Amino acid sequence: MNNGANRSEELAQGLLSSPYGALSPLQKSVIDLIAAEAPSGADPILSRDDRTFGQRLADRVASIGGSWGFIIGFGLALTLWIGWNQFTRGGHLAFDPYPFIFL
Questions:
Q1: What 3-state DSSP class applies to 79?
Q2: Where do the structural domains in the chain lie, given as residue ranges?
């Protein structure tokens, strides 16, 4: 028990530059949790994801589709599509001849 009190006193001095006895009850409880190496993690109920599958999927698609990498890549693919269809043997190999549909 004395070892725990010494550890709490050391932590109070090291982290808050105050003696353990001068701390507020909240500060003492936090120091005691740190000294006991007790987990003080978030409530599992608060960290639970209550979104539906569709909502999670929509968020993933939006994070990819709204990124600069996707926008630049799509612009490059569109430019290649136009170039292939415009300049391949006068349009004979074009699979989407002019006027382009852009689907």
A1: helix
A2: 2-40, 72-103
Whether the predicted pLDDT of 1 surpasses 60? no
As given in the structure block, the two tokens for residue 31 are 């120091």
Contact assessment for residue 46 and residue 35, using Cβ atoms and an 8 Å cutoff: no
Determine the Cα–Cα distance for residues 82 and 7; give it in Å rounded to an integer: 71
Q: Is the Cβ–Cβ distance between 98 and 82 less than 8 Å? A: no
DSSP codes of every residue in 2-66: HHHHHHHHHHIIIIISS-GGGS-HHHHHHHHHHHTT---PPPHHHH-----HHHHHHHHHHHHHT
Tokens in use for 40? 């003080």
Residue for token pair 């001068």: 22
Burial class (CB in 10 A: 0-12, 13-18, 19+), 31: buried
pLDDT of 41 strictly over 90: no
